[in-house]
Fold:
Amino acid sequence: MILLDKHFVGKVLIFAFLYISAAACSGPGFTDPPLYLDPNASVDDRVEDLLARMTIEEKIGQMNQLDFSMINADDMGIINIDEEKVRNLVRNYHVGSFINGEAVPPEQWFAFVNTLTRVAMEESRLGIPIIYGIDHVHGASYMSETTVFPHAINLGATFDPRHSYNTGWVTALESADVGHHWNFAPTLDLGVNPIWPRLYETYGEDPHMASVMGRSYIEGYMGNEEIYPYRLASNAKHFIAYSDPVSGWDKTRVEIGMQQLYELHLPPFIAAMEAGLQTIMVNSSEVNGTPVHASYEFLTEMLRNQLGFEGVVLTDWDEVGKLVDFHRTAKNYKEATYMAVSAGIDMSMTPLHLNFFDSLLELYNEGRISEERINASVRRILRLKFQMGLFENPFPRNDRLDRIGSEESRQKALEAAQESIVLLKNNNSLLPLENPSRIILAGPSANSRKNLAGGWTLAWQGGDEDRYPEDMHTIYSALQQEFPDARIDFIEELPRTASPAFSRRLAQADVIIYAGGEEPYSEFIGNITDLNLPRVQKDEIALLSSGSTPLALVLVQGRPRIITETIEKADAFIHAGLPGFEGAEAIANVLSGVVNPSGRLPVSYPKFTGHYLNYNYKPSDLYFFHPDNQNHLEEPNPGTMLFTFGDGLSYTTFEYSDLELSEGELDKRGQITASVTVTNTGELAGKEPVLWYLTNITGKVSRPVKELKHFEKIHLEPGESATLSFIIEPEESLWYPDARGNRVYESGDFLVRAGGLSQRFTFSYR
Ligand code: BGC
Structure:
């Protein structure tokens, strides 16, 4: 409360100062008090008024984004501000935005941003508030005591956009008050390359899924009215085609046909724009030979002229600099700045030096970059700040921080985690485990918190194990809670070979659970040369499966590590993805049957290290693989994948019947309603994602064997049926883009599919 009062007094003083200094620069045409400080004036008028008062240095400063380490007091640990550093950067370089950090408690973040704001407002002649950006990519994960949701790949696995909405909503609730204004999420890259280390940040391999989930995230994040009087800015990244590098390694080159780029990679960004997206972060790799940060074609012709995006385009980390020493497409920083600004960036995440400021000023002074060009970017940045209400409410607040990490929010994260667990094998109905009296538990994820949360949690590469909340379960502690009457025998160090004593120990258990997978990583730090599950884990699984005790394999992993031989040794297999802070409980709930699994794979699970295929492959992709060379169009899994997108088992069974179409034909203005009945034919209640696919049987541009066009998750009691429908409309579903992004409609036959059933209809383009 005292802090609040203090900050109220500070605020009054700063606004008084602002009126005086803005009035001081008033001249002919300027109103007094300044129009830009009038909350009742239109945003456009406020922007123009402010822009007209700014010096070129002040404008360039707004285009500059620096890392928090530039203003952190070095000798005081992380997230402790050094006021003098802020003063220097704002007074002399007019810096408009700061980013990044690590997890500290909300009060500490509040104090940091509060001081930063106060000093920045004091030092900024016109009182332009800073905007603070951060990677809260699965909940406010760069702050302690918050709710940490599953990563996006798990949200994809839920097949329920409600969970993506909740993630956005809770992230906003837990970010807004401490002054984290701008979140670098959602990631709308497509998870098409399973070895790419950022796969887990995506919603999976399907463009429709990424569009639906991304849109829901933005709606939840930007639509949260509980954060009033604040508003937050979302950011879709990384524009465009970042996720499919030739080598599979992060930030390396992408070679892609433009038709594929339009068809697969663009739709999620378009959906996000329709949902009100305000900012975009650029892909840090090169696409078809040009780094996207230097691509006028992508950043201006496509993004601005073709898609009509009017928001802020932000570079990725030091990407202007990387045009010089990473891509080697610019001979020095100044040329790199020229290239990036000419291509269309608005703000440079510089972020550890002032080269961008200096270079852009020089380019302006030399007449190579015009003031109009700078104005165009600054306008967009100021518009964002006005739209967010930052001029009226620049300061964070600490009077309702108790909303952070609430039971209610954690319950939302738990539900998302529960619905994201994918059961892929369950021989002899090993799961759910019924009253086990002795469980042997082993594997590197069995007693680890950090593995459940993955990268971008507490810190860039995930925090050290002891930084995670004490009340966060590991799989080990969650199993103890879930099976209070069982003895859980956790073996931390497994022997290399099975001695007779060890074999006896295994034989005494009812079940062995091996929890393996991956340790946290982010970005290129997660590059690997082999997608196989590490040898040591395969050997441990082999050892544990040497007796007759059934084995359940649980993989906590950001990408599908190949287990083609190993899975034969397991009776059950759960792909848990990266389920977040509530993940261990969710896994235990599925093992016990408290939760009936309803997650489905959002990416196809590769069978081979040398050959990957997404579910929406082209007919010719497998023509020579199939013995009969014909029927793979109809097959749910063509045999080159271990499991396919959409796969996942339940403890109950669902039957699909009566797939019917309202019409057998339609033209461009028509529509067909497809309906199907789904019945829970088992003995347990359960949830089933109903996935609707279309197949365009013949196309001048070869068509995928199937494309997801609609999905809906339903809950059915035993014996209960539901009839679901999907409305097929040409404008929505019966076209594809050409290599320029124009819509192509072709007359011909289509298949609509749901749950293994299919029906044919004819489309006449008239
Ligand atoms: C990543 C972005 C991230 C940014 C800021 C970059 O290296 O590619 O996804 O938002 O850093 O942390």
Q: What stands out?
A: The first strand starts at residue 64 and ends at 67. The first helix runs from residue 2 to 24.
